[in-house]
Specification:
alpha/beta; eleven-stranded mixed beta sheet; eight-stranded parallel beta sheet; 15 helices; binds zinc ion
Amino acid sequence: MTTLKPVFHSVPNVPPRQIALLRNATLADGRRVDVVLDGSVVAAVADAGTPASGVAGPEAVLDLDGYLLLTAPAEPHAHLDKALSFDLVRPPLGDLPSAIEAWVAYAQTMSVDSIVERARTQALAMLAQGITAIRSHVDVHPDNPTRSAEALVRVREELAGLVDLELVALCSSLTGDDGLEEALDLGLDLVGGAPHLAEDPYADLHRLLAIAERRGLGVDLHTDESLDGPVTLDEYARTVRDWPRDREYSAGHCCRLGTLDAERRDAIVADVKAADLGIISLPITNLYLQGWQHEVSTPRGLTALRALLDAGVRVAAGADNVRDPFNPVGRSDALETASLLMTVAHLTPEEAYHLVSDGARSVMGLPVAGPVPGARAELLAVRAVNLLDAIANAPADRIVIHAGRLVAQTRVERFVAAPAALASPAALAAPATTADPVVQAAPTA
Ligand SMILES: [Zn+2]
């Protein structure tokens, strides 16, 4: 039986450290700067070497020479209660219905504690990669509507101060309103579901929206996650168009939109834009789950990203599932998602990184962040010369700052033998080294 402990068993238990100054960082636009932090906010960004006044001791200063400084990624669509279960479930490789079948059978056997352990491990793995905000869907199953909610609310409390966690009640169409209300009562933040899987998608869509409206909650629905199934996105957009804007409305997947002819697609995109509905694309999971029935010219299972971006729709991207029946692989890394967006959706590096960082934060209703005066100090420094280098290589060397505090750092030392003509005797005598362990802030709870 696979255990989860080895992933992080050697992580030193270090408290988060307040940072006041980041020196010699390279920004995505090529500028070399010093960044002054004031608590959880970026106070100033100046040319590197500009004297900063009032900076505290050396423990509050990080030298980012050789690092690219970015807005920290946010994961707009995770399933922390399912993550890292692949080796426990041992499902067959396959499409969405087969993954659901394998998961539902396994889910009966889970305890709250076992969910907490996997969810916490996964959230910390994401934090180590630089993700400082996560929106996770939480199963609300008819047989036990509150088990996952209980677990994820506990994880949210444990990780407070390290990562911002938003929880969405993922309500099955078979779960009654009472079950959903019970799960929401535990403290979940948004109403979710998957109306496209219901026997009557429109009835389920309106049932979920009515509960959200009554409770004054935002909505994030798994929407039209198929290549040939129902289209509900337009109905969703038109329904919430005039609803209060003090909460977020978003739709994940929307693969079906990517299969429609241009005229119909553009009409729906106009509805989405008019409603200011956020769209969340999930390339790695939908590349895995969709297309199994297409032996040749296998379709990509992605939404209409270019049309959405051209229309000015707020778009985010994430990984969705990680190492569970819905996606056996994945590295918990937004740079992996960004790389896929360039390869399969033909986005530019800037567009791709926007979708996993600023775009994701916007769809999640989070304040603006990044190396900009006045923004939240949610920052990822990665050892790279520019954005394309970071996306292409996804270097492991990273420094992660959440709310102005250092919460994770990974250092890798690499040794490569050189041709004899180039190698110095000293270099050849140096021993090979292995990666240092990840250094990461631990939850205090
Ligand atoms: Zn999902």
